[in-house]
Amino acid sequence: MDDPLPAETNACRPTVLRKPTPANEKKTSSIVAPDNRSDKSGAADKPGPAPLEQRMANLASALRRARVENAEHSAALADLRAAEIVRLEILGDALAPVLAQVPADCDIFDSAISPGERPRLFIDQIGFVEMDRDRRTYRFLQDTRHGRITLRESANIDDMVDAATDYIAHRLIEREKALAVDYASGGAVRAMRRAPPMAAREKGAWLGGKAYRLFLYFVEFLGSAAFFGLIAAIVMWAYRSYLAG
């Protein structure tokens, strides 16, 4: 029986010859220095300032967008203002029957809508109604010597009509008190004394008009007489000068 072959050992492997390292060759350090090329490449990748034409194009497009947004904002404000005016007109129509009951000699109430940045429905010179910021709530305001006060805030038209009716009633009472105080202080009496009675004034006006008309008739008569007298004198002169001779 054949003997097994002996295992191959390291002594039988061929020896690899290594190239000797030169003495002047420096050993490479295991610590790798940071590479600055990435920073340089990043700096190179950053975009520079845009050219003038591109900046002008961007500004023109921004101006166009701003004009469009401004137009849309203005249209929205106009729509809101129109809605406020419509609501105030509805309230004014509801107040019309109340204002129709005001005495004819009272001219302190003049209901009208003032269009503007904040549309307002004026009841008189110091009281008005405007819409709140939500464009749905009515605000009844009054200017006083101590500033502007709020009389009523409500989104219901009936409540605002009731508030305006009470305001008109109180204003009428204040007017009556002012007239009574003026009469008690003698202002009305002095005015009545200074002013002649209505019948006397009418009689004086009638007499003055009649006298003026009589004067006009007299002047017209004298003018007619002088005219016809002049014509008669001319006729007599012509007769004596041409026909009688």
Topology of helices and strands:
Layout (H helix, E strand, L loop, with lengths): L36 H9 L6 H49 L8 E6 L5 E5 L2 E5 L6 E7 L2 E8 L2 H28 L2 H8 L3 H46 L2
Antiparallel strand pairs: 1-2, 2-3, 3-4, 4-5
Helix pairs in contact: 2-3
Q: Can you give a write-up of this model?
A:
This protein is an alpha+beta fold and 245 residues long. Among the domains are: 108 residues; 43 residues. Helix 2 packs across helix 3. The protein is elongated, with a radius of gyration of 55 Å. The protein starts with 36 loop residues before the first helix and ends with a helix.
Summarize the structure in short:
By secondary structure, the protein is α+β, with helices and mostly antiparallel strands. It has helices at residues 37-45, 52-100, 157-184, 187-194, 198-243; strands at residues 109-114, 120-124, 127-131, 138-144, 147-154. It has five helices and five strands.
Summary keywords:
245 residues; alpha+beta; 5 helices; elongated
Strand order of the largest sheet: 1-2-3-4-5
Low-pLDDT sequence parts:
1-17, 22-44
- How many strands, what sense, and barrel or not for the largest sheet? 5 strands, antiparallel
Percent strand: 5-15%
Q: What structural class do you assign from the helix and strand content?
A: alpha+beta
Number of helices: 5
State Rg: 55 Å
What form results from the Cα inertia axes?
Answer: elongated
Helix and strand run: HHEEEEEHHH
Oligomer: single chain
